[in-house]
Amino acid sequence: MIESTEIYKKVEVITRTEFPQGASFLLAISGGADSMALLHIFNKLREIYPYRIEVCSIDHGIRSESRHEVESVKGICSDLNIPCWIFHGNLPADASEEDARQFRHGIFKNLLKDKHHDYLVTGHHSDDQAETLLMRIIRGCGPGGLKAMKVKDGHIFRPLLVFRRTDIRNFLISMDISWFEDSTNESSAYFRNRIRNEVMPLLLQENPQIVRSLVNLSSSITEEHDSLLGFCHSIIDNSIRLPNGICIHSTSIPASTGAIMNIFKIVWEQFKHSGEIGRDHLQTIHDDFINRRKFSRGNLPGGLIVTWLNDYVFIGNEFKKQDFEIPIKPELAIPTPRGVLKLVPDPKGKIKASTFPLALRNRRPGDRINRMHMGLVKLKTIHEKYPVPFRHQLLVLVDQNENILWAEGAGKAYGISGDNYDLVWESDDLSPDRFLR
Questions:
Q1: Is 292:260 a contact under the CB 8 Å cutoff?
Q2: Beta 325-328 vs 312-317: how paired, if at all?
Q3: Nearest Cα to Cα of residue 103 among 91, 113, 112, 94
Q4: Among 65, 150, 221, 326, which is 20 to 30 Å from 262 by CA?
Q5: Beta partners for 309?
């Protein structure tokens, strides 16, 4: 059993190590055992360190006694000279745990912003961690859903996460600190209560260290999953980024179910408009990838597509067939749908021109370019070597009379006189040449 003084010392070390002096904390205090321990520990901490501390106590409206509890918390905070903000809700008696959580976190988010607090402090402990892991396993989830809560996670601080529920209550008893018991904690109507009151006692009979075992398992999964995500992000960071999506060379993606699914999910999260993605969606894309099915198109929620571009996999928004025509003069940076280009004089350049301005546009129906020994050739024919989604974005340079001087994939036109120029990418070269068959 952990001594009461040890709980304070450990929280003091974590807080002093992780946060600068002068940090501002908003404590989520319900009046229950865990939050009351939190309140008194931080009250003692501010006597030593110049932390700014305020309290938020929320009455969801589900239990009649909760109004009295938050008013009691406010009274205790007044005695301790700690500012306290209380909120009364009107959730129905049959509100779900998720409904209550969303209600709380909406208030926390607004209060953090309005009162300029750096961190939200909650009273989660290791029993909560173990219960959450069991709940997610039973409901069904992937490795990401089995990740452990962290003591410090962004703007959320959980200093009691390393302690058991019994340790915290023994601390309160030793300090003669009272707390409120939530009457709904005994109700089997809530999934977490069934795990806590019915499942955990059975598991403890089989393994008295089951809480520690589950917490260690979740921590191991967190480390491995974070490592996998880091690997996936490195692949995405080194991929070809287009305005509407990402192209990843198929050889860059390992034949690992976890890697493939996470890469697709990460890119989906970056480009999605709406919707949710589930394992079934990812499994379908994974199977297509593993079997090297050169599908013309696969759909993901949120309006995203997955398509093969020869040896590349494209994930992103639909390629829009939108005509563009951009005036272009020498030495001026020209933004195009694929990046920034500049027309520069070059004695060895592949483009000849004599009058300006020219125009840079996409291919149009009927476009033909004059080629040596071949005469006029349809650009449509030349561009068939490119994947379909890119053909509409291929660049064509024309003069004021719509004569084609140069076309991507075809080169300079034959029989054109004038000075030599070349097109140079000012930004990353997004040339579709890398996707040629």
A1: no
A2: unpaired
A3: 91
A4: 150
A5: 312
Q: Where are the domains of the chain?
A: 4-221, 238-317, 325-435
Kindly report the pTM of this predicted structure.
Answer: 0.73
234-256 per-position pLDDT tens digit: 999 988 777 788 888 888 888 78
From 239, 292, 232, 237, select the one nearest 262 (Cα to Cα). Answer: 232
Cα(386)–Cα(437) distance, integer angstroms: 7
Closest to 80 in 3D by CA, of 181, 177, 180: 177
249, 257 contact by CB (below 8 A):
no
368: which 2 tokens? 């033909």
With cut-offs at 50, 70 and 90, classify the pLDDT of residue 23.
Answer: very high
Contact residues for 238 (Cβ-Cβ < 8 A; gap 6+): 252
Pairing of strands 368-371, 375-378: antiparallel
Cβ neighbours of 90 (radius 10 Å): 10
pLDDT in tens, 379-414: 999 988 887 777 888 899 999 999 999 998 898 899
For residue 25, give the nearest of 60, 50, 54, 2 by alpha carbon.
Answer: 54
CATH of domain 4-221: 3.40.50.620
Tracing tokens 């069991």 back to the chain, one arrives at 134
The number of CA neighbours under 13 Å toward the Cβ of 286 is: 17
